[in-house]
């Protein structure tokens, strides 16, 4: 399993390549992902997971 950083980089490269192949599809993926990540449940779950892992999510929110 990839680390969070490696997974983020892989997704970035995938989205970058998709942009070259099909810009409309890439824009749709990005818009849907943005919408999903803004859902309260997702944000709360992510903060809870970060807390359990010993990270302070408020620092990320404030940045």
Describe it for me?
The protein is mostly helical and 63 residues long. The chain has a domain of 39 residues. The chain has 4 helices and no strands. Helix 1 packs antiparallel against helix 2. The two termini are 28 Å apart.
Short précis:
With 63 residues, this protein is mainly alpha-helical. It has helices at residues 4-21, 23-37, 40-52, 57-62.
What is the percent of helical residues? over 70%
Find the count of extended strands (DSSP E, 2+ residues).
Answer: 0
Mean pLDDT: 83
The major β-sheet equals: none
Number of helices: 4
Structural class: mainly alpha
Task: Flag low-confidence runs.
Answer: none
- The secondary-structure element order is HHHH
The coarse silhouette is elongated
How far apart are the termini? 28 Å
What labels would you give this structure?
single chain; 63 residues; mainly alpha; 4 helices; 83% helix
